[in-house]
Amino acid sequence: MTAAVTQKPLVPGRLEQSSTRLAFFIAGFGVAAWAPLVPYAKARAGLDEATLGLLLLCLGAGSILAMPIAGMLASRYGCRKVTIAGTLLICLALPLLATASTVALLIATLFVFGAGLGVVDSTVNLQAVIVERASGRNMMSGFHGLFSVGGIAGAAGVSALLALGLTPLWAIAVVIVLLLAALAKAAPHLLPYGSESSGPAFAIPHGVVLFIGVLCFIVFLAEGAMLDWSAVFLSAEKHIGDAYAGLGYAAFAVTMTAGRLLGDTLVRRLGPTRVIVLGGSLAALGLALATLAPGWEVALLGYALVGAGCSNIVPVLYSAVGKQTVMPEHIAVPAITTLGYAGILAGPAAIGFVAHASSLSAAFLIIAALLVAVAISGRILRV
């Protein structure tokens, strides 16, 4: 086995910053390319909704298991090699996701695909922490903004290719070519080293890292609620037509992306503490407005406020991880990324249980209360 990389290059500069942005785009593009394929996979394998839901958990399981391993490998072999390996795993899994017709093959492929996504997501966030710290400037929101742009491009691009009459396999072939081209452009300036911190390969998050992870969990829980439940809520409670119910998530995604692309400037002007306080408050207000106000038009405005409020909280929290000294960052970054993913995965299911026991409105108001707690925590957390 190769020895750990110990020699460090010069301080990361503009080329490393550009490669970090491109790596975030790759992560967003790769995960979103799968979304338009879900109905095709469901039809090929003859799955009902319950079975499909269980299958999708395999994707999350692969991601969550891979994230701490990615942190360990990045600290030993460098961010470049681990990011390349994760991207190649994504490219390996996508053609199978476009053609698999048995449950067993879908389970295995979704797990591998999720592992690749988890490796890339965790590693590019670790690189982002290192690059931002070396720059001495706020850059994390812009990095995460490129993830959002990649997500929009991946979902819209694959949908457009399918609408033009391409088969899922040919559409994915185009995606793989673009992913490999982006990787070839980014790879030379991805960091050949990982965290400079020493420490164990794995550790349970504690102290401020656990606190940051819980805040990430709540914000990602809100994001998962928008993704999985906003359309259901608009259709059932606001009586919008099914064809337009997706506008709620669209309003959220647009303001989320715009907020992140403008976020570095906002963080510099307002300061990270105010970004968390004001962002959490705005998101809570938006979710309460969408839930309680009559009319779907007001609900769309509320979802847009949720996207704007949440957009820069997580990037600020990742920056805070780079400043803490409680845990080595190659452990801390995967830890909070894993907790965030847990919010996206477990959150929608928890919302379903609350909605079944009470109502979907009650579930949304609980999330709004949790976002208020995030805003209050911004004054406690030193960022």
TrEMBL record:
<dbReference type="Pfam" id="PF07690">
    <property type="entry name" value="MFS_1"/>
</dbReference>
<feature type="transmembrane region" description="Helical">
    <location>
        <begin position="333"/>
        <end position="354"/>
    </location>
</feature>
<keyword id="KW-1133">Transmembrane helix</keyword>
<keyword id="KW-0472">Membrane</keyword>
<feature type="transmembrane region" description="Helical">
    <location>
        <begin position="106"/>
        <end position="131"/>
    </location>
</feature>
<feature type="transmembrane region" description="Helical">
    <location>
        <begin position="170"/>
        <end position="191"/>
    </location>
</feature>
<feature type="transmembrane region" description="Helical">
    <location>
        <begin position="243"/>
        <end position="263"/>
    </location>
</feature>
<feature type="transmembrane region" description="Helical">
    <location>
        <begin position="50"/>
        <end position="70"/>
    </location>
</feature>
<feature type="transmembrane region" description="Helical">
    <location>
        <begin position="82"/>
        <end position="100"/>
    </location>
</feature>
<feature type="transmembrane region" description="Helical">
    <location>
        <begin position="360"/>
        <end position="381"/>
    </location>
</feature>
<feature type="transmembrane region" description="Helical">
    <location>
        <begin position="21"/>
        <end position="38"/>
    </location>
</feature>
<feature type="transmembrane region" description="Helical">
    <location>
        <begin position="143"/>
        <end position="164"/>
    </location>
</feature>
<feature type="transmembrane region" description="Helical">
    <location>
        <begin position="300"/>
        <end position="321"/>
    </location>
</feature>
<protein>
    <submittedName>
        <fullName>MFS transporter</fullName>
    </submittedName>
</protein>
<dbReference type="InterPro" id="IPR036259">
    <property type="entry name" value="MFS_trans_sf"/>
</dbReference>
<feature type="domain" description="Major facilitator superfamily (MFS) profile">
    <location>
        <begin position="16"/>
        <end position="383"/>
    </location>
</feature>
<dbReference type="InterPro" id="IPR020846">
    <property type="entry name" value="MFS_dom"/>
</dbReference>
<dbReference type="InterPro" id="IPR011701">
    <property type="entry name" value="MFS"/>
</dbReference>
<keyword id="KW-0812">Transmembrane</keyword>
<dbReference type="InterPro" id="IPR051788">
    <property type="entry name" value="MFS_Transporter"/>
</dbReference>
<feature type="transmembrane region" description="Helical">
    <location>
        <begin position="203"/>
        <end position="223"/>
    </location>
</feature>
<feature type="transmembrane region" description="Helical">
    <location>
        <begin position="275"/>
        <end position="294"/>
    </location>
</feature>
